[in-house]
Write a structure and sequence with these properties.
Order of helices and strands of chain A: EEEHEEEEHEHHHEHEHEEHH
CATH superfamily of chain B: MetI-like
CATH topology of the largest domain in chain A: Rossmann fold
Shape of chain A: globular
Number of domains of chain B: 1
CATH topology of chain B: MetI-like fold
Structural class of chain A: alpha/beta
Number of helices of chain A: 9
Largest sheet of chain B: 2 strands, antiparallel
Number of strands of chain B: 2
Helix content of chain B: over 70%
Number of strands of chain A: 12
Number of domains of chain A: 2
Oligomer: heterodimer
Largest interface: A-B, 31 and 25 residues
Radius of gyration of chain B: 28 Å
Radius of gyration of chain A: 19 Å
């Protein structure tokens, strides 16, 4: 990580706290940085706050403490005469345009064709000329192996195909950072691989990515770094090979052991 | 072990003498009885309509296309369209306001809907018509300060404006509830996705949420238009020349009450039937992409059309 010391991280999260009301904190002081071109996998048991973390980064959830910076610019808030105050909705929308998100439930727009799902944001939000946006969308669809589905409606596609369209839609906005919120968790087992392949190819293009996932193999083989969360805090944050080879905390050791046993059961069956 | 010449497994010991493909239709006695009853009732109604001379069908025919009846029909249709357009616009704003996270706005909209949904439209019409009693002059100016412009209320509140205000506000309150239910039926993930792509709230509401809410909004709105069309008959009490008023004027002169009401009934049914056809078409338009079968059905229709 010493290579990064003189550069600004694409994303910096400092002391992030999130509560849904009450004194329980879903995120209770999260710190981590993501540098350009890095792929960071976020792992952890369910309820550890990892989905909440990416939703907070994309400002889909309010935050109650700490701060986040995209290319050094504070997310969701600004300094004003020595105080910190929230940005307007329009300013927040502008910040979101530099990020993109892939959801567990795909969340494609069902009333539009696949092509329009991909071109809407580039055309209406980023001002890309229509022919260019369409050409780029068709290129992306070809890259995710769905060039023949441009005129289909999302509900006519399988879950894996929908998620690949959702990835194309996210990439079409040319984001600084791409957030994945458990992208394969609602897919039938035989459809998981096609989505992971697309994500792997994307990682190889140098896209900066944060991937919340339960896919251990993907985290080990594709991610540069793995972050382990439990009870709303980051417990380990290390290069992937060390992370799996030499887990330091007992929580992570137990987590990896359970995951391995589950994998053995699956293969054995 | 992959067998490339896969054959389905068949049970060699099974009795294959029965095959439902050769089944006969079953006689259903209750259907026969109900069918006969319906046929008898239908014939009776037709005989009643044709042979009862008090319907005075020639009079119905004579007045069906009477210019003042057609004027009344035009007025009723115009009130329906204006009431629906103004009601839908105001209703959408009220629905958005009711779902706002700014509490005073939310409560203002909830109160408005509660009041105007609760007061019978007939009471409202008479109330607006008599507004001059409460407010002799209508004025524009600084609140609690100087007036800039003012008009006598009776110059502004004619039967027409009273009818439009009363029907639109009543309609807006109902549409607000219908649209609110439609908006709430759209999955939160859709709003998340729109927000994550950097859409403004307006873009998200008008392009993503409303078009999907339409599927839920259209069927009750169709009923609402029909109710409004019939509800325009209420304006006859404030001497508005609607369809009902126009036939009343005639039968007050000729005493042919029943045939004139039949004239009105025929026109109400014609308009309502046309509105129902329009509603079905709009429903089909907004079902786009909502289910695999709907898409498949449209594809089949397109293929059939082109064939």
């Amino acid at each position: 990580m010493s290579a990064h010391e003189d550069t600004t991280p694409v994303l910096r999260v400092v002391g992030l706290r999130k509560s849904y009301g009450g004194d329980q904190f879903a995120l209770d002081g999260v710190d981590f940085d993501v540098y350009a071109g890095e792929v960071v996998a976020v792992l952890g048991p369910s309820g550890s706050g990892k989905s909440t973390l990416v939703r907070c980064i994309d400002q889909l959830e309010s935050i109650q403490g700490g701060a986040m910076y995209l290319d050094g610019e504070m997310l969701g808030y600004e300094r004003h005469r020595g105080y910190i105050r929230p940005l307007t909705d329009a300013e927040i929308a502008k910040q979101r345009r530099r990020m993109a998100m892939v959801f567990q439930q795909f969340n494609l727009f069902p009333h539009w064709t696949v092509l329009r799902n991909i071109t809407e944001a580039p055309i209406k939000v980023h001002g890309v000329p229509v022919p260019e946006a369409r050409k780029r969308a068709m290129d992306l669809l070809a890259r995710v192996g769905l060039a023949d589905k441009a005129d289909s409606h999302p509900r006519q596609l399988s879950g894996g195909q929908q998620q690949r369209v959702a990835i194309a839609r996210a990439v079409a906005t040319q984001p600084r950072i791409l957030l994945f919120d458990e992208p394969t968790s609602s897919l039938d087992p035989e459809l998981v691989d096609e989505v992971l392949q697309v994500m792997k190819a994307l990682a190889e293009t140098g896209m900066t990515m944060i991937v919340v996932t339960h896919e251990m193999e993907f985290a080990r083989d594709v991610a540069d770094r793995c972050v382990f969360m439990a009870d709303g805090v980051v417990i380990e944050d290390r290069p992937s090979d060390e992370f799996f080879r030499d887990p330091r905390s007992t929580r992570l050791q137990a987590f990896l052991k359970r995951a391995t046993e589950a994998r053995v059961r699956e293969v054995g069956a | 072990m992959i067998d490339m010449t896969t054959q389905p497994i068949r049970n060699p010991n099974a009795d294959r003498s029965a095959d439902v493909a050769t089944a006969h239709r079953r006689v259903r006695p209750w259907r026969v009885i109900v069918g006969i009853l319906l046929a008898i009732i239908t014939v009776q109604i037709i005989v009643f309509l044709v042979t009862n001379e008090r319907f005075e069908w020639p009079v119905v025919g004579e007045y069906l296309f009477n210019p003042s009846v057609l004027m009344g029909l035009g007025m009723s249709t115009m009130l329906t369209i204006v009431g629906m357009v103004l009601g839908s616009i105001l209703g959408t704003m009220l629905a958005a306001g009711q779902l706002s996270d700014f509490m005073p706005l939310r409560w203002a909209c909830i109160t408005f809907v509660g009041v105007f949904r609760g007061v019978p439209p007939l009471v409202q019409l008479i109330f607006w018509y008599n507004l001059a009693y409460l407010l002799p002059r209508l004025s524009l100016g600084v609140p609690f300060g100087p007036e800039l412009l003012s008009w006598p209320t009776n110059d502004i509140i004619t039967p027409l404006t009273a009818a439009i205000i009363g029907l639109s506000l009543h309609e807006a309150a109902y549409m607000a509830e219908i649209i609110r239910a439609g908006i709430l039926s759209v999955d939160q993930g859709q709003r998340d996705a729109a927000a994550a792509m950097g859409f403004t709230r307006w873009h998200s509401f008008t392009r993503v949420v409303l078009p999907q809410a339409m599927r839920v909004i259209i069927p009750p709105t169709g009923s609402q238009v029909i109710a409004l069309m019939k509800g325009t008959s209420l304006v006859s009490v404030i001497a508005m020349g609607d369809l009902l008023h126009s036939v009343q004027v005639i039968y007050n002169r000729t005493y042919e009450v029943v045939p004139m009401l039949i004239v009105a009934v025929i026109w109400y049914l014609v308009v309502v039937t046309l509105l129902t056809i329009v509603q079905r078409r709009v429903e089909r338009y907004y079902s786009k992409g909502m289910s695999r079968s709907a898409v498949a059905r449209r594809t089949v229709e397109r293929v059939e059309e082109s064939a």
